[in-house]
Amino acid sequence: SNTAVGLLVLAFTVPSIFFGYLAGVLVDHQNLKKVLVATNLLRGLVVFGLFFAKESLILVYLLVLILALITLFFLPAEGSALPSLVKDKKALLGANSLFTLTLQAALIVGFVSAGPLLSVFGELLTLLLLMSLFAVALVCVWLLPNSIRSVEEIEGVSSWKSFLDGIIFFFKTRSVRDAIFLLTSTQAIILVLATIAPGFVDKVLHLDVRLTSLILVAPAAVGMIVGSVVLGHIAGKHKEHIIVTRGLFLAGVSFLALSILERASLSPLILVG
Q1: Which tens digits make up the pLDDT trace of 100-129?
Q2: Which residues are within 8 A (CB) of 64 and not within 5 positions of it... i.e. 6 or more apart?
Q3: What does the alpha-carbon distance between residue 23 and residue 27 come to, in Å, rounded to a whole number?
């Protein structure tokens, strides 16, 4: 049902809001390679567990929640490992750009292809594919050098001190508080959109809910790409708070226009546009 899909989205996204910062602090004081290997292994095992959870929706929710929590530890380890891998610090900017590009491309391809894969191959083969991808990722991180370490681990700073320093810095620095508030607000908006998207495809567009990724995520991905290109051209010409304010305003107008179009009995193609 649409409610079940929405709860699955919540189970995967809510943990990052409450535990993301804590997970990042803890990871920065661990061996990064071990964290990367362990998290990929555990995520593959969780996906394997989904084979046996199809008859229990509660168990599916629990496994998805565990998958989200494990991913919280993988992401900061992934980001912290990059500076250690790039020996020439002048090349770090290019490496970050390449990393971000491949990450966003993978997310777009994954989200867009999810629905069609389920429709063509079914649940079992799709889960096998996911397990295979985690196995490939496990091999890749296993081949990384053992020398990758975070700055905090090298300097021997305690995790408790890092946690408190981050909290103090947050409350003392207004620009950081504003940025975190805006990022959290944006995450909340995306969370709402992701939760209502399946119901919108089913009840409003009257299409197969498995096409959600293709119908809504694909156009949103194109919009993100266009937005990134536009932002790159205007970022140096306008103040940041003006860009953010106008961006949020246009996003709100878009949501309002979508609700108005829904009441106008227009074709699904126009609504997707």
Answers
A1: 777 777 877 777 777 778 778 888 888 899
A2: 8, 11, 12
A3: 6
